[in-house]
Amino acid sequence: MEMFGIALIEGIVTGSIYAIVALGFVLIYKSTRVINFAQGELMMVGAYVAYFFMAQVGLNLSWSLVATLVITAGLGIMIHYLFFKKMIGESHFTLVMETIALSYLLKSGVQLIAGAQSRVMPSILTGPNVQIMNIPVTRAAIGVVLFSIIFLVVFQVFFKFSKMGTAMRATANDQVAAMGCGVQVNVIFATAWAISFMLSSVAGVIMAGTYNLDTNLGAVGLLVFPVIILGGLDSIGGAIVGGYIIGLLESFSKAYLGQHFSTNLDIIPFSILVLILLIKPYGLFGTKRIERL
Amino acid sequence: MLRPCGNYNTSYALDEAIFQTKFVKCCMLSFLILILLLPFISNRYVINFLNITGIFIIGSIGLNILTGFTGIISLGHGAFVGVGAYATTLLTSRLNIPFLVAVPAGAFITAFLALVPGLAALRIKGMYLAIATLAVQVIFVFVIVETPRITGGDLGLTVPVPTFLSPQTQMGQKFFYFLILGSLIALTLFARNLFRTKIGRLFIAIRDNDLASQVLGVSVGKYRLLSFWIGSFYAGFAGGLWAGYSGIISPDQFSLALSVQFLSIILIGGMGSILGSIFGTVFVMMVPEVLAGLSTEANRMFSMDLTEYFSSINNAIFGLLIIVFLLYEPLGLAKIWWKIKTYFKLWPFSYKT
């Protein structure tokens, strides 16, 4: 029973992280049709920027987080104008290769600037553990979950009600029609990259706080694929639900099956990915397109 | 197609010939003689480089058939190379099958195993299929690591030294050079000729417009599967040769990084071009060598020790190369080669078409 509880809480925490990263991924996919293989590297860069402000500059948590968000938003806009502006309307393969190249550039760039050694992130929330149903839960874990829920709600509201959010949804729906209504598609794309980078950096800070900060942090980014395929490639709600499902699955499989295997159990999310692709390719909440083969 | 002045093809066969003129034939023949003589005049370092490059050319031709010609983006090509390597190794070490038989056998095993993920190609396409092949990559590494009794797990396997005819004659580096060269030539010719047959033309038709080709009566799923089969055969062949040549295989060798390397090779070389696979592989394999040379130079001249940053710089340049080619020459080195050729053929009266 205790194992169950621990796994449950761990799953919710990882699920929150996955949900945030997947949300960033879906945002980019929805507005620009780019399948972003560099999402994990965006996380990693965000974590390093936050580390720089917290450990090297010495700002406190909230200010360094604000600074990180500003900088990563700027980087996201830069990424769009440098790499993807010319690529609008190119084939899937081109866009995928571009993001893969981007991930190589980001990773090696961080390695060159910050060095490849692993660092310890300053702990974010400290204090005695909280007891939930007799299971000790760290404050950081509760903070992570609350924080991600706030973030998810804020972005839902942004998409539903703000002018920019509406324009983004319009662009996602039909680029040409949105252009015709006076939406500046390039600005929308740049915003999507900026927001996605911001979201990923938040997830990156959390990840780096839970584990250690090194340049391999981005490897988690691959797990975003099971999440978004499960939820549906272009569904924001699906990304959140998928994130929590995959997070829970991972922690439960680690708790109950982990001792039988020597590697981490990435295979379970990926088997689910294959299953979903074969049975229901558009995921739980994705838009169905009438297109066979 | 452009051909030099005064060459008039009088038959369809002449029109379809791979080597069009006597000049080209002479060039190819002298090139062949050169590469046949090369191992006798160069050192071990160069032969090693050529061997690895040859193996990678075979693998990248396979990926080009799959991605460049049929339009199936595969992120699992590294895994297929790995399957070939493990199959060949297990065939030689467990069943004592001679290496020269085990390599093609391993390639066949890879090709048939690839039909399992290939079945996904019957149902999904485009990016969905690419993500499915990503899953293949993850599953492959998992299976290898989790079955240590058969595959050696994380530590990998030592490949028995390949022998020829009798157990005493071990295959050396030069033997491998000719083995790789021979299979490379055979497989290149096969691939080149494949796209002059019905099957190859159908691959191209499916890439260009799958819906239209289905309407015209092409069984799209069947040919996608066939493309998977052929592409993985090449991958398995390359993997088998690689295992025998390097003597040790481990799961990290066949990670996603290898798949990405193959993808970037065909991107830099030229999608949908056999020649592009060759150019791309030579180019991509040269980059780290040139970098290593430059970093020793830098070490000597400015006493900067770059060895620590070497892999990062290498990866950064790798990423930059991909982006530069995507932005400025999406059809790769093969297209650049074609432009150069056309320039000289039309000189001095070149004009833009």
The major beta sheet of chain A can be summarized as: 2 strands, antiparallel
Q: Please state the average pLDDT score of chain A.
A: 82
Query: Would you report the number of β strands of chain A?
Result: 2
Tell me the β content of chain B: under 5%
Regions with little confidence, pLDDT below 50 for 5+ residues of chain B: none
The CATH C-level name of chain A is Mainly Alpha
How many domains of chain A?
1
What does the average pLDDT of chain B come to? 86
Strand content of chain A: under 5%
Gross morphology of chain B is globular
Strand arrangement, largest sheet of chain A? Answer: 1-2
Largest interface, counted by CB within 8 Å of the partner chain's CB: A-B, 39 and 51 residues
Q: What is the N-to-C succession of helices and strands of chain B?
A: HHHHHHHHEEEHHHHEHHHH
Rg of chain B (CA only): 21 Å
Number of strands of chain B: 4
Binned, the helix content of chain A reads over 70%
Brief overview:
Chain A is mainly alpha-helical and 293 residues long. Chain A has helices spanning 2-32, 39-57, 61-84, 92-114, 139-161, 163-173, 175-180, 185-210, 224-231, 236-257, 267-279, and strands at residues 130-132, 135-137. Chain B has 353 residues and is mainly alpha-helical.
